[in-house]
Amino acid sequence: MSWTRLLIAIPVVILLVALCLSQNSESNQTVLLKQINFSGDLRVPVDELREYTEFLSGHRLERKKLVEDASSAVGNALRHRGYLKAKVMPQIRSLKASAGSKDAEVALELIIKAGEQYRVKDVTFAGLSSQLSQGDLRQSCDIRSGEIADGDRASSCITNLSNLFHKKGQEVFVVPSMMYDDAASTVSFQFDIQK
Questions:
Q1: For 119-194, which CATH superfamily applies?
Q2: Would the pTM of this model clear 0.90, i.e. be above it?
Q3: Which of 46, 82, 188, 194 has its CB surrounded by the most CB atoms within 10 Å?
Q4: Residues forming CATH 3.10.20.310 domain(s) in the chain
Q5: What is the pLDDT of residues 148-183, one digit of tens each?
Q6: CATH for 29-113, among 1.10.8.50, 3.30.1490.190, 3.10.20.310, 3.40.50.300?
Q7: Above 60 in pLDDT, residue 14?
């Protein structure tokens, strides 16, 4: 390698390293969230979405944590209402920045693509489920055919089934699966109970 190429390559490498460090420190920068805005295909009233994200407003968080927590909270709100394939894309916009990161204020835009609202087609049980009656299994899962599919209820079903078997002296884990029928906007839940 000639000295000329080396002299040209060194500043380029330094610039790339500085750019990477700058991007990494920006994603870890602590910011104060002042505003949350929602746009896109919401399918849920803005007031309800705000209820799921109000715990973030007025608090200092790292940018990365802010994005993760907001996306998770809004995703949960949508899944609770049957939008099981919803997507949330967060964007942070600076409102006020000064030399110190403590004064950085931001607005968070949550762009939502709710997609289809799913209804429950069926709930089935597999694995060790044959050790209990269908009535006991169904009673432990508050999921009914025809109702709006609720991701929270599916989580509760997993816990309830585990507890039901625990009371019978068995330690199990429950593996859920969902089969989607996009044309009919329905979902079938299966809970596989395993040792």
A1: membrane protein fhac (3.10.20.310)
A2: no
A3: 82
A4: 29-113, 119-194
A5: 999 899 999 999 999 999 999 999 999 999 999 999
A6: 3.10.20.310
A7: no
| pLDDT per position as a tens digit, 93-123 | 988 765 554 568 999 999 999 999 999 999 9
What tokens were used for 7? 């002299």
SS3 string, 59-77, reads: CEEEHHHHHHHHHHHHHHH
The b-or-e profile of 94-133 (16+ CB within 10 A means b, else e) is: eeeeeeebeebebebbbebebbbbbbbbebebebbbeebe
Q: Which amino acid is at 13?
A: V
